[in-house]
Amino acid sequence: MKGxxxxxxxxLVALIPTVIIVFPLYFIAIGGFQTVxxxxxxxxxxxxxxxxxxFYGDALVTLLPYLKNSxxxxxxxxxxxxxxxxxxxxxxxxxxLKIGKSTFFLLAFTQMLPATAVIIPLFLIFNRFRLINNYLxxxxxxxxxxxxxxxxxxxxxxxxxPTGLLEAAFIDGASLFxxxxxxxxxxxxxxxxxxxxxxxIMAWGDFIVSLSFLKDRTLQPMSIGLYNFIGQYGVQWNKLxxxxxxxAVPPLxxxxxxxKSIVAGLTAxxxxx
Length: 273
Fold this sequence. Notes:
By secondary structure, this protein is mostly helical. It has helices at 2-31, 36-39, 54-94, 100-110, 115-128, 135-158, 163-171, 176-187, 189-204, 208-213, 222-225, 237-257, 259-267, and strands at residues 230-231, 234-235. The chain has a domain at 66-227 and 247-270: MetI-like (MetI-like fold, Orthogonal Bundle). It is 74% helix and 1% strand. Helix 6 (135-158) packs antiparallel against helix 9 and helix 9 (189-204) crosses helix 13. The longest helix is centred in the first third of the chain and has 41 residues, at 54-94.
């Protein structure tokens, strides 16, 4: 009985934050099926009284042109992040660099900075090189945040790779690039998958970088496309809620399908056998 009571106690502790997170999402989801008057009805409806798919359909039609931009920016940022973070993490994990500790501290420090503290200097730099208002500016701007994040995750995992295994490959005549490509990358695949998935989600949900660097509406992602439901004379709350749920579907699917991979990649480098 004591064991069951203890189990129920921890289940309740875990259930409380879950309910706090799920409740707002639930009301946003059902808000897309209601009129604005029904959304603001008091007391609020727990279920849509007259559900309609019209608002979800209108939101999808509005956001669909922005889908290509979101995909280009998310996938482009993913490729750039892994291209830079993989060798950087390997160097920080396995080489005794004079500036290794300073570099790692700088990477960790960038994660503590608010995005607004970085956007202004980035804008000035990109404007000088005429990189404003194109996909490259947004991809590079988001990469400023995702590259340090991915490097920290990958470094923690690569530190657990046995150094003797790498030294044996060098003795057999393998080059540094061959060791990195044939040994390090396959062994670090769980961490690479984790860093890639989280980077993809971060790039998909970006707002402030895209808003600052992309002025042409034809280049803006879905996160900014939601602004179409905020007009001069009011907010179309039902379409905004429907659009928010549509925008959240791709990262939600990725997170659900890759949930175990994310946990495995984050914890695999935590222990040494």
